[in-house]
Amino acid sequence: MRRMSHFLPAALLLVGLLCSAAPGQTMHPVFYLLDEQGGNVLKTSRAVSPAKTCGQCHDTGFIINNTTPGHAAWTDQQAAPFARLKGEGGTTQADGQSGGMNCFLCHLEQPNNSARLAALTSGQAEWAATATLEGSGIVVKAPNGWQYQRSSFNSAGELLPEKARMVDPRSHHCGYCHGQVHYQATAPLLLQAGQPEQWTTFTTGQVISPQKISASGINLAGKEMLDRSWDIHSERLLDCVSCHFALNNPAHQQADPANQPDHLVYSPRRLDISEYLHRPSHILAGSPVQQIGAGGTIDSPMRRCEGCHDFDKAHPWLPFKARHAQSLACETCHIPQLYAPAAAVIDLSAVEAQITYRGVDGSGDVVHTLVEGYKPVILPRKQGDGRVKLSPYNLITTWETRESGQVRPYAIHHNVAHGEFVVRECSSCHDKNSMLSAAMLVASPRSGGSLELWQESDGVLPTGQLLERADGLYFAADPGAAGFYILGHSKVFWIQWLGGGILLLTLAGIALHAFLRFRANKKHKTSAEQTRLVYMYEAYERYWHWLQAIIIVGLILTGLTIHAPGRFGWLSFAAAVRIHNVLAALLLLNAFLSLFYHFASGKIKTYLPEPSGFFNQMFSQARYYLSGIFKGEPHPFEKSLQKKLNPLQKMTYLVILNILLPLQIVTGILIAGAQAWPEVSQKLGGLGFLVPFHSLLAWLFAAFLILHIYLTTTGHTPLASIKAMISGWEKVPLHPEEK
Prior knowledge:
By secondary structure, the chain is α+β, with helices and mostly antiparallel strands. Helices cover 35% and strands 11% of the residues.
């Protein structure tokens, strides 16, 4: 008890000390502020050099040579506002000099970005890093320049501990250059279009904020219904560095399997934290392959959606999950719409750039002008592994002169939604009005001038075409040009015409034949034949026949929904796919059991042609259907237990069972298995060949089914054959000796 009485006050004291610590306190040591020559700025009054200052502990030369463009050594290289639209950019300082390096912009808790930009635009680039410290108490702006405040330094000339706090980059740091970031809980989000320095917001309308869209200060159409955050990851308190981390950060570093012993499943070897702090790579995950010090390259894989989310468990309702994961970027469905203005057309041919915005009618003033948002265009993009995925983009047309303009794509990765705000309806893609081939306005009506598409920019393929309409020029995406065949949307029109023509000709032939039979029956009154009942079809034969018929009809009907959901929408697309697959499995099982039954019972002979005279018999049967039946002639072949099928039926079943049905089964398996064996399907032409061929076979099956049903009416009564297949008993004519 005595020990407890000593421990409790100590514990309370420790808790009190922890609670009194200032928020954001770090373990960063105090340091000198040095100028470019390495002198203490308190003595020299020159501009701060972040490279020299931070180089007291960190290898800033390594950082400069290992940095993603736009970061670290690039932060104070000011370019013209629209230079990036023209594909222009600066170059890194690879000689170990400071260049425009500004560590404070990303590592000071509250840097002054406005003062930094003002220094850059006023031609005082060497003072930009110093201006970043304005407002912290370290330096103040005076009429004759910046002055350092001695009260912020200790007696040795080092920054005081509370002034030397450095933090890991947060989302608002990234927002100084990349786009609108808003984390204020009570203040409504406001933004103003036309600020190229906020690059992602300007080019795509992406906004990083956990705030509900309905609580923002933007004059947004239907805002009251948008009870979702601007970005779900921000709402879940994730920062940009959660995905865009430093490649050699020990917390994210992945062991290279090529350099590990074969017997190790997991290697605990990681960069020591002191080594990382000395040489932190500023090549961020998600950036393109970068040059490194010795002229080599380093890849920069980032934690993509699949690195955190289990695709299969997150989409239990989705059929063919693997196929969707192979073909679509997660953003395609999870960012179906942007709710902030984005640049659409920029005319740089005038003295002052003229900007037309997408998603807003007017100047981009989101307070006074109604914002409607926009839906991105879906384009194919080559991944690092060579696969092509469909991803969302905004298109910006830049007119550099009055006569010449170019369309460029800008990727969309943020503003991720979930729940009811994502694309879940299959018809959004699998329909003739698929969002995957939607058109996007790229230019207003303009006299003269030619517009060019980009040339595979950053792996983005320019698959689509420019369409001229009354209100302007549109880009219509065409995923088929990149090898995508989308069920319900993609069409091979000659297959449709051929298949439909075969079906219509079959129906027309049946109608003509039925009319001629009806007219002939009036002229040639035939007396009723003497018949006897024969147990023609055993139970299994009847069950197999009707089950097969029902399955084929079901496959045709669900196939119509899958290939044309807009016209045959009696089922949802997902339900049609599932039912189609179940019916296909039943067809395969029923065909296997039937094959086993007919071989085991010896009844396979029923379907085999006779060894001699078969073609003559087939022609006799054809002549009967084309001529004799109209004259009241007797059937050329008598039906019996041993000969249930006439020669034409045998030939038809030979073609159906040995050619059409196997081809239909194989192509169906390859279509369904395209997600499991994409290489196999691709070698056989891919879905662009397999699906149309499968559809053509389905047209032939439909024609055969209709013709088969009609020919059952050519017995001694129209319904005799159908009744026989139901009961098993059929009336057959008596032989002469039986009469």
